Automatic annotation (TrEMBL):
Sequence segments annotated as region (Disordered): 111-154
GO biological process, one term: endosomal transport
Leader peptide range in chain numbering: none
Name of the protein this chain belongs to: Uncharacterized protein
Record-linked SUPFAM superfamilies: P-loop containing nucleoside triphosphate hydrolases
Top-rank lineage group of the source organism: Eukaryota
A GO term for molecular function: ATP hydrolysis activity
InterPro entries associated with the record: MT-severing_AAA_ATPase, P-loop_NTPase
Lineage, top ranks: Eukaryota, Metazoa, Ecdysozoa, Arthropoda, Chelicerata
Amino acid sequence: MNPTTNVERRRHRAKALLKIHGTSEISLFVDASPYAKQRAHAAVAVDATGICINACTVLTTKIEEAEEVAIAMALTSTKHSFILSHSQVAIRNSTYNPNETVPALSRELTRRAAQGVPSRPHKSLTRAAAGACPDEDATPPKTPPRPPKLAGTRRRLSVCHPMESVILLNENRGTGSTSSSGAASAEEETLRLEGCLSAERSLLDFVRQYPSQGHTMLLYGASGSAFIYLAKMIAKEDPRWEVHYVRMKQFMGRSIGRDCQRELESLFTEGKDKIKMLFFYLLDTIYGNALAAEEIDYAQRFKTELPEYIKRVASTDKKKLAVVASARKPWLFPNDLQSLFQKWVHVGLPGSAERIRLIKAHIGHVPCSLSDSNFLQLSRMTEDYTYSEIGNMVEEAHLGPFKRIEGATHFKKVDNHWEVCSPRERGAVQLSWHTMKPTDVKEPLVYGDILDGFVKVELRRTDKELAEMETIRLAHLEPKQDNNPSDRARNS
């Protein structure tokens, strides 16, 4: 959902998602989206026909509170029994209990009760899409059931702390703790991003030979997932370093009203027992137009002071401090900042063979009827796609089995599992997926589902941005190294 105030587009999306779940008159779709450059969210509740039942503006910067208000508006309806949401936030709030309401929801219900607006608990809160907010470890709702096979899909690369702005990645290294994602996390660790191999070698040389190769480095490329992968790789591989991962978007939002110089002094303190690496994730975001109005003043002061601090790191003989920044649009940096990065490294996109492995990894253990020729064709179609865009494509494709299962009226037994069939097929039994055990349902992912996902996921880069990236890459070419042919990946 594009986070804008385009009400018509939001209604169209809601109507399409409700169509997936049937045209039931007892269903509502809730959604919340941030206003562009404002500290507010739009909360809406739309019925099965696409008509807005209720809408309001929530003066908050937290999507959770806006979602809660949207749910509260849906709860006031007395004729709708199901709430459908595309957001993982709403799923976390699915265990609605009148005695255990979250603050924003409680305030909204209290206000509406004072106005005499009726409200009642609903039967269920169900998700309208598989894999929404893949970086969050939220528990899916128990009602209605979902096919458990989809739990085998690969999780995204993330840094686990969704609310922190500066994260010490080394904290979880070697602890032996296991996460709730189980096998999915293990699969994530074993899947190596081959498009990053050249950048990985350059970064490893930088840290192993530090400080002979300098104190500052810029990683640039289209894939944000690749930057996360490289930061986690250094934190895991080299025990001499402690990686302080700075997420610029969260850092800007949490530093408003604070002393900019004091914040920078705290960031740029030298390491004590280990070499400290400041890893700025997507530093270019503060040089674009995506900042909120209240963040502009602090960001301006930050941009003024930052080059001075990086210059000190690059020009002094500090032995325990290095700066590594990552950027999708490095051409946004002013010339004085660009000149401070002593080493520029391009982070490539996945190669042809790796794209096939990525698609298979994101499909996971879900039954799949795709042939080798189908995977090869998908690899060609996604030539300019990043790791996250390929993941988004497959996640959209996972809606296909849900659509067929939820819309089916007849099933037949195949290998002790129920599969969707037409009423005239031999062995067809009239059933509803609500009355079946999740472990008994089986519906394979087909090639058409992936194509649907491909159509829905658009590239986030314009032709102008691609040309700018190519200009930057040619200006900072590194000497070619002899690679193992099996490890080669496309770096442009």
